[in-house]
Design goal:
Structural class of chain B: alpha/beta
CATH superfamily of the largest domain in chain B: von Willebrand factor, type A domain
Largest interface: A-B, 42 and 48 residues
Number of strands of chain B: 16
Number of helices of chain B: 11
Oligomer: heterodimer
Number of domains of chain A: 2
Order of helices and strands of chain A: HEHHEEHHHHHHEEH
Distance between the termini of chain B: 24 Å
Helix content of chain B: 25-40%
Shape of chain B: globular
Radius of gyration of chain B: 23 Å
Largest sheet of chain B: 6 strands, mixed
CATH topology of the largest domain in chain B: Rossmann fold
Helix content of chain A: 40-55%
Chain lengths: 199, 424
């Protein structure tokens, strides 16, 4: 079923009747008809004009003579509107979801996306996460100071009172966290320690 | 394709005519069971192939029994897999190591030898380890099979990205791209407020291992669940008839971007129970009324495209006497009560977080007594006895402050299990 939508990719539909015919077939094929309510099931020319007026379908800029030339994007917009209507979403919400979406995004919303694009999507996504994450530099991670050295440290300590009964001890060679992410991580550890005290 | 069975139940089969009322509707969704004999299933292609990454915490706190059990569980996992499956293992503390990248599970002994050498050390770079595990899976992404990261940890994320919101959003992002995440928290020191939402948004399961011994059992359940997964990306909309209003859906499901209820994955043969509370207007005796239209969207495990199942529930109105004399459906009462108890558990957690232990205990006490009252006529049902025991156990362990972290986890996971509608 999904294939018949994807096969339309790149096609143009000259004139409203042709666009209505093709989209009508696909609506039936994808079973996007509504079961109850007042909205017409298969999009006729009048419905499509209404969608154009409501901005649910982008008005085609291309023309051949007097006829508008509808695109694959228009088709996806129409099918998505029908699908969301069948899910009883209000027009306002549908407009929000459809407006400005790319072919790819609409294909995803419609659930007709081929797996080919998806195959590398997860990988690319994870790589982007890695790139943006404040990762610990490997040399720092590779040499964590063994605990026994901490006790033997000759460095001097500074004491800062946070509130009566709670002090922060800072060793002279300590460098504060370099990024907000690291500061946050540090704070969360402190909060965790404080919670344990409370309990 | 065989569709899930959808059943509707009300406390009594007919509704009372002549008055406005609140009606509890139990909706039970049961995906078809896996046939014990695969050859009798028309489109059986064997169980789905698995593409897993085990992301294993080896931070200092895992030292001892926990590390031993986690290794055993990972090796158990290797044993359960087929040569057609793929497995990778990533270990993490403050360093992240890909113990072995995604490989077909053909040389089991070599995999187990590598796992056997993992010992505990360092702090917890949970986020990056999860990403690395995801990468090993995504490099070999299966179209038809199941792609999943299983994160096993006993600690708090304290290296790298540690923000719950950020990690949970990323888990959802990864799931939308075809790789799901399950989390297994061990002991009392991990962050359930991270691991549970991570699995829920990540399209997997959240597990809590109380005793290291449970590890193997959880792994078995997770693997069986993967094999028995019937459908993912499951959503539900309920459209009330004119004059009917939905007051509440007791499961407290998250909403999808199109405003539908986001349901957990469907498991073959395992029912999902959902309770909706409706306000229904006064009707005349003998009226047949379509109360509710249900629309269940899901993507079957072996399909690429979403399926939609539509079903309506119709009820009849009768006189008060007729209704009062008709039998009461215990299943509806039980489902309502258990979901209310899930809310009570969440409420008790909030009170614990605010330091109000007496309040938390009181909330659980009330839940226990209302369960006893509501379920009095079928108090001997094992599920009811278990529920009461669990509430009582958690309430009394609250008295012992040392156990409070564990109580909070028990509350969290018990509420989660109920609200995701899983029954045995």
């Amino acid at each position: 079923m999904a294939m018949s939508v994807l096969k339309e990719k790149g096609r143009k539909y000259v004139g409203l009747p042709e666009f209505a015919r093709v989209s009508g077939q696909l609506v039936a094929e994808l079973q996007l008809e509504q079961q109850r309510g007042t909205v017409t099931s298969v999009p006729d020319e009048r419905t499509i004009r209404y969608y154009l007026a409501e901005g649910l379908i982008q008005t085609p800029e291309e023309r051949q003579g007097t006829a508008s030339v509808f695109s694959y994007l228009n088709l996806l917009q129409l099918l998505t509107v029908k699908k969301l209507q069948a899910e009883h979403l209000p027009i306002r919400k549908i407009r929000e979801l459809v407006a400005g979406k790319s072919e790819q995004e609409l294909e995803t919303l419609l659930g007709v996306r081929g797996p080919s694009g998806k195959k590398t999507e997860a990988k690319r996504y994870l790589e982007s996460l890695l790139a943006s994450a404040p990762s610990a530099p490997p040399e720092l991670a590779a040499a964590p100071p063994p605990p026994q050295h901490l006790d033997a440290s000759p460095a001097s300590w500074q004491r800062v009172e946070i509130e009566p009964g709670l002090e922060l001890h800072i060793r002279s060679d300590y460098s504060p966290p370099a990024t907000t992410g690291k500061t946050r991580s540090l704070l969360e550890r402190a909060i965790h320690r404080l919670r344990r005290l409370r309990d | 394709m065989e569709y899930p069975k959808v059943e509707f139940f009300t406390t009594r089969a007919k509704l009372e005519a002549g008055r406005e009322q609140t009606v509890d509707v139990l909706i039970r969704i049961t995906p078809p069971a896996l046939s014990p004999d695969p050859s009798t299933r028309p489109n059986w292609k064997g169980r789905p192939d698995l593409n897993l990454s085990l992301v294993l915490d080896r931070s200092g706190s895992m030292e001892g029994e926990k590390m031993v059990r986690a290794r055993e569980a990972a090796m158990f996992c290797v044993d359960q897999m087929l040569p057609s499956d793929r497995l990778s293992v990533v270990t993490f503390d403050d360093r992240i190591e890909v113990l072995f990248p995604s490989e077909p599970v053909t040389n089991k002994q070599a995999m187990k030898d590598l796992i056997a050498r993992v010992t505990a050390r360092g702090s917890t770079a949970l986020h990056e380890a999860w990403v690395r595990g995801g990468l090993t899976v995504s490099e070999r992404l299966l179209d038809q099979g199941i792609n999943r990261v299983v994160l096993i940890t006993d600690g708090l994320a304290n290296v790298g990205i540690t923000s719950t919101d950020e990690i949970v959003t990323q888990a959802m992002g990864l799931f939308q791209r075809g790789v799901s995440t399950s989390t297994i928290g061990i002991g009392a020191d991990f962050n359930e407020d991270l691991l549970m939402p991570m699995a829920q948004s990540g399209g997997g399961n959240a597990w809590h291992v109380v005793e290291p011994d449970d590890m193997q059992h959880i792994f078995q359940t997770e693997l069986e669940g993967l094999i028995a997964q019937y459908a993912h990306t499951v959503s539900l909309s309920l459209i009330p008839a004119d004059g009917v209003r939905i007051i509440d859906v007791l499961n407290d499901f998250d909403l999808t971007e199109t405003g539908r209820y986001r349901l957990p994955n469907l498991q073959a043969g395992s029912s999902l129970e959902i309770v909706a509370q409706l306000k229904v207007g006064a009707e005349e005796i003998g009226t047949q009324m379509r109360l509710l239209d249900l629309r269940l969207g899901f993507t079957p495990q072996d399909a690429k495209q979403a399926e939609v199942l539509k079903q309506a529930h119709t009820v009849e109105f009768a006189s008060g006497t007729v209704v009062d004399n008709s039998p009461v459906n215990d299943e509806v009462i039980k489902a309502v009560q258990f979901l209310m108890n899930a809310r009570a558990r969440n409420e008790a957690m909030k009170r614990m977080d605010a330091g109000d232990y007496a309040g938390a205990e009181a909330v659980l006490g009330t839940a226990l007594s209302s369960t006893r009252e509501a379920c009095a006529s079928f108090a001997a049902m094992p599920a009811v006895m278990e529920e009461c025991a669990s509430l009582q156990d958690t309430a009394s362990s609250l008295k012992d402050r040392l156990k409070d972290k564990m109580s909070r986890k028990k509350l969290a996971y018990a509420a989660y299990t109920r609200q995701t509608g899983k029954t045995d």
